[in-house]
Amino acid sequence: MLGKITCRLEKPATLKNKSDWDHFTWNFANLAEQQREDTLRIRHEGRSIRNETGIQARWDNYRNNNRIRDRITEIDNWRVALEQTVCTIDLEIRKQDAAKEAVEQSVETKVIDLDIVNEIMSIREQRRGNDYVMDEAQQELIKESCIIKETRNALEKKGQESWHQIARLQEVRQLILRDLNEKVISVDIDRYLLGLTETSSEIAFRPDPLRIPKGMMTPQAWEEQSRYNKLRADCELANSMKLREAMLLTIDQTLNELKAQREVTDFHLRKRFHEYHKTTADLCHQKDKILKEMCKVETEIRDMEDALLDKSNKLKLAETRLEHRTYRFGVELTRDDAQYGLTQEVLQLRAAQKVLQNKIDENKKSLNMLLGFLQNMEGEMENKNEAKVIEQQALDVRGRVAASQDTPLTKTDRNIALSATVPVPEDRRRQTGETGRPKCHH
């Protein structure tokens, strides 16, 4: 049987000395003091950092609020300037549209005037015979037609330029409106952000708030873009104003040119009508004189025929006497003075008959010539009367030119003028207060 074994357990660590223990205790107390001091320092530093960061945050918030307010003020200033520019553009578009309408109405008036001139030229083409001539009135009508075409082309060109200018103004207006819309949205956003506080329910952490969105511009580029839109609008407004002045100047110049040419043409038309009237009166006077002369020639022919008949009877008597004297016999058949006298009488009567017959033939020939000339004169008078009627028709048609100088504004009067059937009464224009140039709505 085995005996019991007894053993004693000991710690594996080595026992320290008392001095080590004292040194350790002293060091531990110093370390605790150091830790406390470090903690106090850290606590004071934390308090300082907390105060500094709080103050910095409040100042940053204050400065950023001021920056946002300044930005809102800056955007508002540009917004006001651009809104005024838009109002100016709208007013200029209305003025430009009114000027374009005036040019279009002037072009329509020129079309009516050209139709009237062509109608007058067509009417004058109906002249016949010697009256179908290239007179001064016809030359002035051709010249007026050329002037109307040139002025119409010039006005149409100005109308096209006005249309393009209005398109450019509308394009600039759309750009400024888009810029204004962006500025309004930006101001609303900044005002909304200015109203946010630390206690607002809308605040939250956002993913990657420091990112720079694509297409973000610098303040210099932003201001340059706004200034560019403003300068472009001002440039287009200046060009539009110059174009309007040029359009109105062109309208006035064309009206003055056509008025001057119209007066010259009217003068020559009236002068030509007066010439036809004077020529017709002269022909009527000549016709009366020729008729009187024909009556005298016919009377002279009858008198000469009576004289010829008288000479024939006398010649018959003389020849009968000579014939009976041949019946004498013997020595009585002699050539005595009676024989010579009768012979001389017969010769003289025959000569007188021949002279009378020649003169009768000459007078008849002259009468036939007068009759032929009278027929030609009557034909010429008919042509002259017809030409005078044509010239009167031309003057009547010409009267519609004065009615078309001011283009009517009402649809009824405009259709009447364009159809060129009835002149527009001037009193209707005065009653309705319409003029040739449309009023600009300011």
UniProtKB/TrEMBL annotation:
<dbReference type="GO" id="GO:0005634">
    <property type="term" value="C:nucleus"/>
</dbReference>
<keyword id="KW-0963">Cytoplasm</keyword>
<keyword id="KW-0282">Flagellum</keyword>
<keyword id="KW-0969">Cilium</keyword>
<feature type="region of interest" description="Disordered">
    <location>
        <begin position="401"/>
        <end position="442"/>
    </location>
</feature>
<dbReference type="GO" id="GO:0060271">
    <property type="term" value="P:cilium assembly"/>
</dbReference>
<dbReference type="GO" id="GO:0005930">
    <property type="term" value="C:axoneme"/>
</dbReference>
<dbReference type="GO" id="GO:0060294">
    <property type="term" value="P:cilium movement involved in cell motility"/>
</dbReference>
<dbReference type="InterPro" id="IPR048256">
    <property type="entry name" value="Tektin-like"/>
</dbReference>
<dbReference type="Pfam" id="PF03148">
    <property type="entry name" value="Tektin"/>
</dbReference>
<keyword id="KW-0966">Cell projection</keyword>
<comment type="similarity">
    <text>Belongs to the tektin family.</text>
</comment>
<dbReference type="GO" id="GO:0015630">
    <property type="term" value="C:microtubule cytoskeleton"/>
</dbReference>
<protein>
    <recommendedName>
        <fullName>Tektin</fullName>
    </recommendedName>
</protein>
<dbReference type="InterPro" id="IPR000435">
    <property type="entry name" value="Tektins"/>
</dbReference>
